[in-house]
Design goal:
This protein is α/β, with parallel strands linked by helices. The protein contains 3 helices and 12 strands; from the N terminus they run βαβββββαβββββαβ. It starts with 5 loop residues before the first strand and ends with a strand.
Length: 220
């Protein structure tokens, strides 16, 4: 376990994206300087699209649908909005192995573990970022995305993080090609018939973060 607890913050309501990015930038600098503890931040955003460093212009299908923000995280276009749990993860990888690929895999494991607690089987797929759910819809086999990951690392301090669809309006995803994937859909806990909400998911995620990263979470 980490000797210094990692701060855990859960923001009520909807947090504006520019405000969140500004807060992350400041916290990452403080963590690097040793003046603030590491932070895991749970929040929701109002409806918006973000463009990662690999975003393709043609994947923004409805630029007038919601505000679009360019962001320094990896990945392509993603949607954020109410009913989606966003988790921004600000950890000093010098304390956690200095391995970015391992860090991303640990984030995947957090999503998979939390979903399993709620009775959902989330899986990785080669060549596709994020966590996927295999489904049988009236005999039609398909795979839909339920969790997205996009991270950035500065001075070995991570930020941005992951998003899990709990009960967002799935129609909102139609304004983009989510993560550049055209051959698969998007799902949510509600779409899968799971009654768990943000509170239940948060409980499962907190346990997964503590176990997988070997940290003590200090709720603030």
């Amino acid at each position: 376990m980490s000797q210094v607890p990692v701060e855990l913050k859960v923001s009520p309501g909807l947090v504006a994206y520019p405000e969140a990015v500004e807060a992350m930038e400041a916290r990452v600098a403080a963590i690097h300087a040793g003046t603030a503890p590491e932070l895991i931040w749970f929040l929701e955003h109002p409806p918006l699209y973000t463009a990662g460093t690999s975003a393709q212009e043609g994947d923004l299908l409805r630029p007038d649908k919601f505000p679009v923000f360019k962001t320094g995280r990896g990945g392509q276009y993603t949607y954020h909005g109410p009913g989606q749990r966003v988790v921004y993860v600000m950890l000093d990888l010098k304390k956690h192995g200095e391995d970015v690929r391992c860090f991303v895999r640990d984030l995947e494991d957090c999503i998979i573990g939390a979903l399993a607690t709620l009775g959902v089987t989330g899986e990785r797929r080669d060549g596709r970022i994020g966590i996927w759910v295999a489904r049988d819809l009236n005999g039609l086999q398909r795979e839909d995305k339920i969790g997205a990951i996009g991270v950035r690392v500065r001075h070995w301090v991570t930020y941005h993080g992951l998003a899990i669809n709990v009960s967002p309006d799935l129609e909102h995803f139609t304004g983009i090609v989510p993560c550049g994937v055209t051959t698969h859909g998007v799902t949510s806990l509600r779409d899968l018939g799971v009654k768990a909400g943000l509170t239940e998911l948060d409980t499962a995620l907190k346990a997964a973060f503590a176990e997988i990263f070997g940290i003590v979470l200090q709720i603030t």
